[in-house]
Amino acid sequence: MSELAAYCAARGCRASAGFTRYEGECGSLVLHAHAQLARRDEIERALGRDQCATDAALILDAYRKWGVELTDHLTGDFSIVIEDRAKGIATALRDHIGSWPLFYSLAPSGKLLFSDDLAALKDAIGDCALDDSYVVSALLGGRRTPLDRTFYQALRRLPAGHRLEVKSGTSRATRWWHPFEHPQLADRSIDSLVEEGRTLLRDAIADRIDATHKTGIHVTGGLDSSSILGLGLPLLRGIGSTAVGFAWQEPANTDEGPRVAAAVKMAGIELHAPKPDLAMLDGLWRQDWASGPSQWNLLHELAVQRAAQDLGVSRIFSGWGGDEAISFNGRGLHGEYLAALRFGKLASLSPRAGLPGLASAVRTGLRELARPRLQTAALSPQNLLSGEALASCSPSPAKDADLRSCRSAMRSILDLGTITARIEDWAMSGREHGIEYRYPLLDRRVMEFAYRLPSGVFRRGTTGRWFFREMMRGMLPDPIRCERSKAEDLRSTALIELVQQSFRSLASEVRDRRNAFARAHYFDMDRLIAALESPPGIGDPALGQLRRAIQFLDL
Fold it and tell me: Is CATH 3.40.50.300 the right assignment for the domain spanning 5-177?
């Protein structure tokens, strides 16, 4: 363990599932890495390296050449810490979208303790006090919590796209990824943009395919996941491999069923649709949200992870997050056109013709321009917090997307951290089942390309996600490519009924143990028990308040 940094692996051999250690020549540089680099040929040429170099060797060579600016030259998925013993500096770096978690703490000695496992880091440090301000903000919901904080005062999260530099016991975190600084691609033809988008996405998938892993792919019947099926399976078959499909619902039993069936038929893929059950949900609520993933993000995916583990699948490709970047639906375009007084363009977005259509589009534009930008101090009246907890701290404001334009919408959504939050939760839970995730639609170059596209390509007339649909023309069956609905009412209804049943089953236990919970003082226990006995339904804001309370309560 070095003077500057220590790899925290409280569970012993778990290091093999997270960071691996690599010592450079002469021992002056030590790398702890969880990485899979993309576009390796470009990095190798820039560094004068041959194709036999490992990712670790390339990262250290990149650090020697570019220092902490190496992230400008690396693409792929990585979470790394570099100890520069000669300079007395430790630098932690997380890729642009946060493919793997990186939690850290500065020990009293000045050492940097870090891990991809928050629970392991907490156990290694010992006595960790909860951060009451963070707890209250997290329980209220509304994206109030700072991206670098955790439930514990002494533990921090390195946000996606950030670097952390530690020297002489002090630390400084800064953002290294600035994708919106580049100008828009205003003078390019649509055909050339569509072709470049296809090439970038195909390369992003190819970079993440590895014949040594048995591969799974999410099959939702949606545009994003189907694009990975359509482009990825031929690449897999080209290296003599194939994939297993995982769906959150059976094709015949949901509103999305016909599209799932169409995706399966197109791909000719083996499909598994494992379902959550009451025992699984009960186990989830008993996990500790404060030192692990949000259980809400695992309601369906945990069943997939268990099934994938049983099948020997170790890597799952997902279309998650694509609709916030390359397959963006054009949110903010009404406000953008209205602010620029482009009334002809604005009217074209309405399904109604003439003045009624223009009036409707203007109203939408006004709502987007007048929408509270980025924050509101209002608290949900359905919150289950105790008066003592609310009085003890001032909750952070809730945040929202800025819809003044498509570009501001995409930027603010990225800054909210919601994309990375699910990635982080799936990574932490997936590690327990030997599974890693890949998100080709969130490839850095694909995202940077998307953020430079002219706003008008994201929506044409009433068709949202227009550009990505054009990218997939000829690649996907039209029933998938042209479908506009994202409804999944039957699946959601079945899930919420199961969630409500699980809450009712907990009510008597919580009532009997109400004075034994160490975290009970955060809640109005009478209201919490009443909510468990009569759980709210889907679409009711009280549901979010209840499930966050149960996720945090120490059952």
Answer: no
